[in-house]
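Subject: design request, 151 residues
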């Protein structure tokens, strides 16, 4: 138990350090708007991704892949396919996590785009989306405390 706590502490410390370094690196690369006329890599990536997500076929294929993937994991977890019990429990945990992340993502994006649709900026959209996602986590914690739905 102690080693698991130490591992968790080390991973969270590395994550915090990596986040700090990434923010510092991004902040050092930024220039004031209008001072650099050459297209940067960020604009190129955003433009390419924007072109890709504007095609309905991409959304359809992504939905089918995610649905089939989650369904296959669920079948492997609960079916009799010769999967060990330890792995089956882990697969079921992955399915629960994937569905939870999808639902939370839908809540976040719904709140974000509804805020943006009302004429507010990106920062306000992210704030409202984060607040909505936080409420989802609070509801999950309350349900866990009352009913005990998670393992």
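Subject: RE: design request

Done. Sequence follows.
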């Amino acid at each position: 138990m102690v080693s698991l706590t130490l591992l968790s502490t080390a991973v969270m410390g590395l994550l915090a350090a990596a986040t700090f370094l990434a923010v510092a690196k991004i902040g050092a690369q930024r220039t004031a708007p209008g001072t650099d006329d050459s297209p940067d890599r960020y604009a190129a990536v955003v433009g390419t991704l924007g072109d890709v997500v504007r095609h309905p076929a991409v959304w359809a294929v992504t939905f089918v892949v995610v649905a089939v993937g989650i369904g296959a994991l669920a079948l492997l977890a609960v079916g009799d396919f010769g999967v060990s019990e330890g792995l089956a429990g882990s697969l079921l945990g992955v399915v629960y996590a994937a569905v939870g992340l999808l639902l939370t993502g839908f809540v976040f994006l719904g709140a974000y785009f509804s805020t943006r649709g009302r004429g507010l900026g990106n920062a306000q959209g992210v704030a409202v989306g984060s607040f909505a996602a936080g409420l989802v986590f609070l509801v999950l914690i309350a349900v866990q405390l009352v009913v005990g739905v998670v393992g």
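Helices lie at 2-29, 41-53, 56-78, 85-117, 122-146.
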